[in-house]
Design a protein that fits this description.
- It contains seven helices and seven strands, in the order ααβαβαββαβααββ.
- The chain is an alpha/beta fold.
- Helix 2 crosses helix 3.
- The termini are far apart.
- 27% of the residues are buried.
- The chain binds S-adenosylmethionine.
- The site of S-adenosylmethionine has 20 residues, from strand 2.
């Protein structure tokens, strides 16, 4: 049985878990509105490893005209929360999406799978990627071990930046934009 079963979601998304719909409301609002500040009108969103579907639900409620696509590798998540059953290391959609979300997913992939997933994510991101995952440093310094899955791959930020940097510029706060994409002021994003 897949590790991403009913007990997994209860364990990490119950009380004191990773995050909840209220926290995603703050995050999704911020991401949507900073995109507007950059002049983007987000009209399509692709949520990778969507889990309980909190991002998808936020968009459905607050921006019902936005085209939404959500995938997950877990049969349980797909059946319960209505996603397409896909593995981002092995599959990419045909088109591009204005905003791509990959929230707390890549730490579950082996190095090789993660490299393939980053290539697939890059191929499908038109304007903005929101990416969150814990690095080795995070586990040693900031992660709350009681509410976080520790059975994951712990890689360095250098490892991720090297691979992401082939496709993206890091803006900050989890946001990345495709190279040669949005023009930004020099101090608005990292190098
Ligand atoms: C920690 S949960 C995050 C769920 C959701 N993104 C959130 O932040 O609320 C990790 C999710 O990634 C999914 N996942 C793991 N590996 C995946 C893969 N290779 N392709 C797609 N989804 C994957 C799992 O099934 C699980 O639902």
């Amino acid at each position: 049985m897949s590790r991403f079963n009913s007990s997994y979601y209860q364990r990490f998304y119950g009380k004191d878990g990773a995050h909840d719909a209220e926290r995603i409301h703050h995050l999704a609002t911020a991401v949507h509105h900073i995109s507007a500040w950059w002049g983007l009108s987000i009209s399509s969103v692709f949520d990778i490893g969507a889990g309980m579907g909190m991002w998808r639900d936020w968009y459905r409620t607050n921006h019902p005209d936005v085209a939404l696509r959500s995938i997950d590798v877990s049969e349980h998540a797909c059946e319960t929360w209505g996603h397409e059953c896909r593995n981002i290391a092995e599959w990419r959609p045909r088109g591009k999406y204005d905003l791509v979300i990959c929230h707390s997913v890549l730490q579950y992939l082996t190095n090789e799978e993660c490299e393939d997933a980053i290539a697939n994510i890059a191929a499908t991101t038109r304007y903005v990627l929101y990416l969150e995952l814990p690095t080795k440093w995070d586990f040693e310094n900031v992660v709350d071990e009681t509410g976080t899955d520790l059975q994951v791959y712990q890689r360095s930020a250098v490892w991720y930046r090297k691979r992401l940097g082939e496709h993206f510029r890091q803006v900050g706060a989890g946001l990345w934009t495709p190279l040669n994409g949005l023009p930004m002021f020099e101090l608005e994003a990292g190098r």
